[in-house]
Design goal:
The structure holds two protein chains of two kinds. By secondary structure, chain A is mainly β. Chain A contains one helix and seven strands, in the order αβββββββ. Classes of the chains: A mainly beta, B alpha/beta.
């Protein structure tokens, strides 16, 4: 396959009008969630309306940054050349204490992820424009 | 509108790896075979339902042009497992509504030439606004559909204590079907040791939990039951069908309630909404003599069994032990050998097998007296076929 722009670079999140505040929050070291001012529920991925009650009255609120690993995997196969020197690496889904689930990576852990493991967020600054959320085991 | 539709012809190209033909070449081979099988003439084909398209395959217009067809009804999908049932359902709806007399369902695949697009750097599906459908998260290196099946199975294992050895029964039993199918690419027995020692692809999926990457085409002709009665083959009646289930309860590769991506968690078993197809077809689940499903990854077979209620929630890994889904089992699954062991022709190799089974021409694989067969997927759509 040739001519695919950026195929040798790390894939970047696709910033849209709906999720831009999430990624701005990451740059500032804050995990922001779109939260409905009507029904009070937070949701992910960020959408234009509350998927629970269809209200457009959304407010971006900072999450506590803690949650529980709901599932995980370890990737062994190299699908993108950019990940060749990283395999095997983990990917986790975290159920945030506010409810929505977020896909990220478990860091600062010697053991594989476990379903039910408590974690807290940190942010990895990739460059001037992009910081990505990751999670570390929550002490205690 | 009542469904009035039957499969009256099926044709396939060679299945293989690195086949020399173009996609259109494979489609032409399958199309001619379907004409021969059905006794229909090219001029009688007036509808196309495409289970192929951008970015992995041709669109309808090139197929109509390339095969010299005069088409008055088109349903265009793209090369993606989610749309296999959909393509056949639209063919059935179109002939039932009189929009076409005979619809050709066409899929032609050259996956071995398209590796870069299948979860690779050229996979633009995952790069769209809002990304892909299988929980892809390219910035974290979760880029391929297999990743979606892996995260679902990992949670399933944690929830129910299921092991990889138990999961292995799925590809092992489906391989046993393939050994009876001369068209199947995989022709060696798959042992538990083979499965367990095969390389890990995306934990917990071993190599043999993942489908084949192959080339091939299948063309399937659908017309009304009245027209079907005048044709060469015993009709395979489309007795009832239900569509894709979608919403926040759904994750493409998990049963409802498992808690993948944004699915709410519950331990509820198969719900009435999951099983409407039986009532619509006028059969009961107990009448089903064989199940056919999109086995891109072995966990999808477990999840499909649970969604349709062939067993309770968390029970599928137990259900598939001891040959239940293998040759001569209580519920044979994918008697052609499926995507796991026959070939990856996007589920249309399964439709071809369903057709042979109902006709009674499945040779060593024949389910005795096969009169009611089900196609059903983990994402909830289904078709019941009857004699």
């Amino acid at each position: 396959m040739t001519g695919i722009e950026g195929q040798d670079l790390l894939p970047r999140p696709r910033i849209s009008p709906d999720n831009a505040p999430f990624w701005e929050g990451c740059r500032e070291g804050r995990l922001m969630l779109p939260t409905c001012t009507g029904c009070g529920r937070a949701h992910l991925p960020p959408g234009p309306v509350c998927p629970f009650c269809l209200s457009s009255a959304l407010d971006w609120r900072e999450a506590k940054g803690t949650g529980t690993i709901s599932t995980w995997t370890v990737v062994h196969k190299v699908w993108f050349p950019i990940f060749a020197d990283r395999v095997p690496y983990n990917v986790i889904q975290v159920q945030l204490d506010e409810g929505p689930r977020l896909t990220a990576r478990l860091v600062e852990s010697d053991a594989p992820p476990k379903v039910g493991q408590r974690v807290s967020v940190l942010f990895e600054q990739l460059d001037a424009e992009l910081a990505m959320p990751a999670f570390r085991p929550l002490a205690g | 509108m009542k469904i009035n539709a039957a499969i009256v012809g099926t044709g396939a190209s060679t299945f293989g790896r690195f086949l020399p033909q173009s996609q259109l070449g494979l489609a032409a081979e399958a199309f001619k075979a379907a004409l021969e099988d059905s006794g229909l003439k090219r001029e009688e084909i007036d509808g196309l339902s495409m289970h192929m398209g951008s970015p992995l395959g041709l669109d309808y217009d090139r197929v109509a042009d390339g095969l010299g067809l005069n088409i008055r009804y088109v349903n265009q999908g793209w090369t993606h497992g989610r749309f296999v049932t959909n393509a056949l359902q639209h063919a059935a709806l179109a002939v039932s509504a009189g929009m076409a007399e005979v619809v050709a369902c066409v899929t032609a695949i050259s996956f071995t030439r398209e590796r870069a697009i299948l979860g690779g750097p050229g996979d633009i599906e995952g790069h769209r606004e809002e990304g892909g459908t299988h929980g892809e998260s390219p910035p974290y290196g979760l880029t391929a559909p297999a990743g979606g099946a892996a995260i679902a199975m990992q949670r399933y294992m944690a929830r129910y204590g299921t092991t990889s050895e138990e999961l292995a029964a799925v590809p092992m039993q489906i391989r046993r079907h393939a050994l009876r199918n001369p068209d199947a690419i995989m022709q060696q027995e798959l042992t538990l040791e083979d499965h367990q020692s095969s390389r890990m692809v995306v934990d917990p999926l071993h190599l043999f939990d993942c489908c084949l990457i192959t080339d091939g085409a299948v063309v399937t002709f659908v017309t009304t039951e009245e027209r079907a009665r005048d044709l060469r083959q015993k009709p395979v009646r489309i007795a009832g069908m239900q569509g894709i289930r979608s919403g926040r309860d759904e994750f493409i590769f998990a049963p409802p309630g498992l808690g993948i991506s944004q699915q709410p968690e519950s331990d509820s078993a198969s719900r009435p909404v999951d099983r409407e197809v039986y009532g619509l077809a006028g059969v009961s689940r107990d009448d089903v003599q064989g199940l056919y499903t999109y086995d891109a990854f072995s966990p999808l077979v477990l999840f499909t069994l649970e969604r349709f209620g062939f067993c309770g929630t968390g029970e599928a890994a137990g259900f598939v032990q001891n040959g239940t889904i293998g040759p001569g089992g209580r519920l044979p699954v994918n008697t052609n050998g499926g995507l796991l062991s026959e070939a990856h022709v996007a589920g249309w190799n399964h439709m071809r097998e369903i057709t042979r089974q109902i006709r009674g021409t499945a040779g060593d694989r024949q389910i005795p007296g096969a009169e009611v067969l089900q196609w059903g997927t983990v994402w909830g759509d289904s078709i019941i076929f009857t004699a």
